[in-house]
Amino acid sequence: MSRVTVTVTVSFLAFFISLVAVSGDVIRLPSQASKFFRKAENDDGDDSPAGNKWAVLVAGSSGYWNYRHQADVCHAYQLLRKGGVKEDNIVVFMYDDIAKNKENPRPGIIINSPNGDDVYNGVPKDYTGKDVNVGNLFAVILGNKTALKGGSAKVVNSGPNDHIFIYYSDHGGPGVLGMPTSPYLYANDLNDVLKKKHASGTYKSLVFYLEACESGSIFEGLLPEDLNIYATTASNAEESSWGTYCPGDDPSLPSEYETCLGDLYSVSWMEDSDKHNLQTESLHQQYELVKKRTAGSDSSYGSHVMEFGDVGLSKEKLVLYMGTNPDNENVTFVDENSLKLPLRVTNQRDADLVHFWDKYQKAPEGSARKAEAQKQVLEAMSHRLHVDNSVQLIGELLFGILEGPSVRAFESHCGSLSQYGIKHMRSIANICNAGIKMEQMEEAAMQACPTIPAGSWSSLHRGFSA
After folding, report:
1. Are the beta carbons of 102 and 157 closer than 8 angstroms?
2. Closest CA to 313 of 208, 233, 230, 232
3. What is the Cβ-side half-sphere exposure of residue 380, based on CA atoms within 13 angstroms?
4. Which of 8, 28, 218, 348 sits at a 20 to 30 Å CA gap from 342?
5. Using CA atoms, how far apart are residues 155 and 143, in angstroms rounded to an integer?
6. What is the mean pLDDT of residues 201-220?
7. Comparing C-alpha atoms, which of 188, 187, 198 is closest to residue 228?
8. Which InterPro entries does the UniProt record give (predicted)?
């Protein structure tokens, strides 16, 4: 081969490789070769000019009856890892009391669907137990290691070209999200942190998926459109979200399970992501599919999936935030929801009762397990009645028919709101907005609740909600 021919050949090869490196869409090669040449495009190295992917995954609950929240988060972790997101760039918050719980029929294993694989294996223990708290969460998002208290010290150390994905799954109420350790996570505080993150110039775009009752209230009227943040929520500001794969639901669970395995909004976006090529599917396309599946087939169940913030970001491809499973690279996206709609689901706030009741029904007659389950059902119902009646009575004492108090004043005299009682946050806000003074609230709470019930649901051993 002549010198001229060699020079031309080398130049052409360099030009060819540069085309592929710049954009995987310019030239498509057979699968094995294309994976090699597209490596730079999907590489999450610190020096990537296209930006790195970061993720924060949060399960905001504890207790076996809340199995589904940690199952959701573990599933999300596996999805991101299969998509190529680096483990060092994924921060996981979960109480970690499910996998090895005595109630778990498959010790050390967590599943997120009836026939699902183990999603717990390999999930990092970044922030567990008491380290799952609001302070650490905010420090992680802001990349502020000095503000951390406990945990792995892993934070979102993002740069101006990076893309951040935040996913939260738990209970919620108007303007508030649950956490396993007090205080709860409040909408104003969360949005303030997101504004600070934007002001720091340490991301290009951020996507927030939120699973909780009244989750629309967390962003509605609070999340500006100019922060390069796109958020979707499982429900609007006034309705519950839904658990799925629960006892008595269709599809049915393995017989040994007595708790919900997932949440409807959460499994909808994850099961969609599991099967599609996220290089071609956009955030908006997924939003539409999830909205359809979460709304349900009739009016008997379902919630309205919402979107907030910079909705224009939804035209971007999911691969920017979640990566994509190489096994799905030949899957063609179709504009319809091929995932089966459930015929029955469970209100998030009733999932604990479903667990206790299923446990009671399956336990042998006369057994200690049956007695324990009966006690759990009665205590949970008693707590609900106490919270509902106390809030109503305080409202009547203050206004006659309006509602009422400061959270601390209420809990000091009436006990913890708990994951069920945070649905009354709007009532408490209404009382504050009506100009009721703390002294009036204290007096009304003392009259409404002369004693705090002894049950575990009313305990304040983990602190106040606010």
Report:
1. no
2. 230
3. 18
4. 218
5. 5
6. 97
7. 198
8. AE (IPR043577), Legum_prodom (IPR048501), Legumain_prodom_sf (IPR046427), Peptidase_C13 (IPR001096)
Instruction: Identify the three-state secondary structure at position 317.
Output: strand
* Euclidean distance between CA atoms 328 and 326, whole angstroms: 5
Higher pLDDT, 429 or 135: 135
Nearest to 445 by CA among 386, 394, 383: 394
Quote the tokens at residue 376. 């759990």
Q: Does domain 363-458 have CATH number 3.30.70.20?
A: no
d(CA 139, CA 127): 12
Q: Rounded to an integer, what is the distance from CA 146 to the centroid of its chain?
A: 25
Residues annotated as catalytic are: 171, 213
Nearest Cα residue to 275 out of 79, 30, 53, 32:
79
Share of the chain above pLDDT 70, in %: 72
Give whole-number Cα distances, 61 to 2, 138, 418, in Å: 71, 17, 11
H helices present in 219-336, as ranges: 264-275, 283-295, 319-322
Residue range 313-325, pLDDT digits in tens: 999 999 999 999 9
Q: Which CATH class is domain 52-348?
A: alpha beta
For 391-414, write each residue's pLDDT tens digit: 666 665 665 533 333 566 666 667
Using CA atoms, how far residue 286 sits from 281, 318, 333, 363, 406, in Å, is 7, 9, 10, 41, 39
> Tell me, what amino acid is at 258?
E
pTM for the whole structure: 0.76
What is the distance between the alpha carbons of residues 287 and 378, in angstroms, rounded to a whole number? 39
Residue 180 has a pLDDT of: 92
Secondary structure (3-state) at 376: helix
Which strand (E) or helix (H) includes residue 377?
A: helix 368-399
Place of tokens 């090669």: 29
